[in-house]
Amino acid sequence: MKNKRYVKDMFSAYDLSVEDIQNRNIDEDYIEEVANKTCVYIQYTSDLKKFYVGESNRYLTNTHNSRFMEHINEPATVSGNITHNKFDRVLIIISKHLKGNGDILETKLLKFMDTEYLVIKDKELVNSRLNQVHAEELSYEIEEELFPELWTFLKEKKFVKSELEDVIKNPIKYYSPFGKILDNIQITAIEKIVEAVFSDDNSAKLLIQGEPGTGKTFITATAIFELIRLEKKVAIIVNQTSMAKIYTDLFKLVSKSSKPFVGSLATFKNGLERRDFSIDDYSLLIVDEAHRLKQPQGRHNYLPSTYTLDRNNLDFTELDIIEGYKKSLILMYDEFQLIRDSDIDIKKFKERVNESTGYEKIELETQYRIKSSSKVAASNYTKGIRNILQLEESNFDEEIFNNGYKFKIVDSLDELVDEVKAKINASYTNARILSGFYKKWISKDDLTKYEWKASEYGVDLRWNTPNDKLGKKNWLKYTTEKGLEFTEVGCIHIAQGMDLDYAAVIIGNDLDVEDVDGKINLVGNPKYYHDTNGIPIQGTDDGSRLTEYIKKVYYILLTRGIHGTFVYIENPKVKKYFKELTENKTLV
Q1: Does the pLDDT value for residue 12 go beyond 80?
Q2: Which of 58, 144, 295, 478 could serve as a FRET partner for 77 with CA atoms 20 to 30 Å apart?
Q3: 382-394: per-residue pLDDT in tens?
């Protein structure tokens, strides 16, 4: 293959032979045009099966001190090594827009090529997935003009197969480690998950604990894609239908032979019993939302298709079933997200899952979902919400409500809807309305009915479309396609685990306040709580457990929004309580 130069509107590309570069058998004009200039380069094999993406301002120089020569001489363990990877060609891209910004194009290429290659068996991106340096800056010229033209060129060269718009729509893109700065704890967690499949006697056990937004789902997805590369099959146990849909959508383009199992423990257990698959098919079991594993208490649907336990053995939980499979096991857990008696008891869980029982614990600390626009750490928002809801007492910087995160209490429901409309019109397409379960579900079988009526609230709203009517789509995608973003209100069971650009939360009459000797306590009001399976069995609760569940429901809902949260509070006493704690600390 000859050495060639391609001149495009936004860039020039030089497709050169590695051997010719080594022998200085390159047109001198090419060398002069490329030498000592910022470039992005793709080292590749001429059969178009293996690729490495890099960025340098000295890839080719007139001396021996070039990045190219470093790649020739570096150890085989270094991902860009030319000799070890048998790279015989390199594509060098230069542009006036790359000076000082080459890492932006490098990051964009890595993220999009990674997304493409994760579902293409015959192409491999050899860059290190966990220790790659990424650009955090943005460039309109590179991202909106140069990159689309470059992607079209790479498609013509058969480096990639998909149209750019198809890769943009691919949900895998959001879980690629390329384009994200991973902290050391996240990297360790991903590495530990991958290493678990190689443990002796399938004995690895790992607990990854973190509050909402610390990256549990991202870590899970990133590790699974790495295991897919290694041809290891994984089962993801997730008891929530809404989360299962998100995972199913994420892995839908993966080949059937590599696709992980995604579903509830009941579905997995029934599949094993029917011999649809074997436990030996799986190298690893991962339980997302492990705090939603069941115990045989509270209100349940006891159908064999959905229930796995013996109601006569109150000590036997779904954790016992999962550990009984004798497979390496990863548990993702957050104790502040237990919302029913049927969720595994915190105390029992901690007794079962600790160092003495063979579990290694990793605690995620950095908040990634909540975005702070100031120096006030985003974690102060989640801590602050836990304090306001009286879930825990801890120190936090109250300035987060005034400087760093958009938090606003509105006075009416139609004002809340207007905030969502404004954000969606501003291209924040994943802004949604959420609520605690304080309204009876009258629209479940009749979509002409509304739980929130315009005659009372100034706007007609109804609960989210049931999971069985969404088909294979998750609620976010469904509401976008059907134009229901301003009509439907997501309940806790559709929203848990979800990332939203902005969350608009209705706090209903299921939450109340009482004054005990001058101290204001938040309490649950069972009269307005309509999650049937979430209500403790009569006579088993003095109200404290229900109060705890209701507060945790609102904690989950109030921590869905990435850039901000708008709140409408129906109970005047609760509204006064919230405003007193956030007044003069609220962005308006």
Answers
A1: yes
A2: 58
A3: 999 999 999 998 8
Across-strand partners of 515? 520
Q: Which two tokens stand for residue 475?
A: 């609620």
- CA–CA dist 326, 319 (Å, integer): 12
Q: Cβ of 515: how many Cβ atoms within 10 Å?
A: 9
Confidence bin at 299 (pLDDT 50/70/90)? low
3-state secondary structure 55-115: EECCCCCCCCCCHHHHHHHCCCCCCCCHHHHCCCEEEEEECHHHCCCHHHHHHHHHHHHHH
pTM (2 decimals)? Answer: 0.76
Cα separation, 221 vs 174, in Å, equals: 10
Return d(Cα 550, Cα 437) in angstroms, integer: 9
Which of 207, 279, 270, 217 shows the shortest CA–CA distance to 245? 217
Q: What is the DSSP letter of 520?
A: E
Nearest to 489 by CA among 532, 450, 546: 450
Check the CA dihedral 320-321-325-329 and report its sign: negative
Give the Å distances, CA to CA, from 322 to 240, 264, 317, 346: 16, 11, 9, 17
Q: Tell me how far apart the alpha carbons of residues 452 and 460 are, in angstroms, rounded to a whole number.
A: 6
